[in-house]
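User: I'm putting together notes for a lab meeting next week and I want to include a structural view of one of the chains we've been expressing. I don't have a solved structure, so I'd like a prediction I can at least talk through. The sequence is below, exactly as it appears in our construct file.
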Amino acid sequence: MNARGSLWLPLVVLLLLAALSYWIERAVQAPSANGQVTKTSPEGIMENFEALRTDMTGKPQYRLSATRLKHYTGTKRTEMESPHFIQLSAEMGEIDTTARQATVSAEGDEIDLQGDVRVVRAARPGQSAMTLRTARLLAYPESDLLRAPGPVDVHDDMLNMRAGGMTYYAKRRTIELSGRVNATYHSRKS
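Assistant: Thanks for the context. Below is the predicted structure for the 190-residue chain, given as structure tokens.
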């Protein structure tokens, strides 16, 4: 009789855990307007994190940090507060990007940077440092495309430029400016 009692105890504990898990899952979900259940809270939150991606040889490719990262399972969307992204490339030079917030699409094919977006390309032999400032910048990593749908300011030692919008095609190394464009070019001093 004692042997049978000891078999029921783990089963009762498992049933209680299953009921508790079901209750917790329902507690974090809220009904939407059409009656379907959707998640309103992030599934995961990380604070003050830093991640480093390397290539197959162990050479660093880029570093990403943020004060807070939230991931939502239902939409597979990721949100970051105060993101800081540094691309480490010997060929292109270091590119340092900051913003107040960023949203990464479910597929990771679109990154929406918003609020005081600043992109700085480090100086290299033959090139001065360049700074780009805008309120919003859309990045499409798979397409090597950057798009600023609103006003953008670009500055380096030889150029001061303002435009109503910008699209940068990294593979072609071309920039398309839109809206009202104002540019001042300073020749190099001999």
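A couple of points you could mention at the meeting. The chain has one helix and 16 strands. The helical segments are 2-27.

User: Perfect, that's what I needed.
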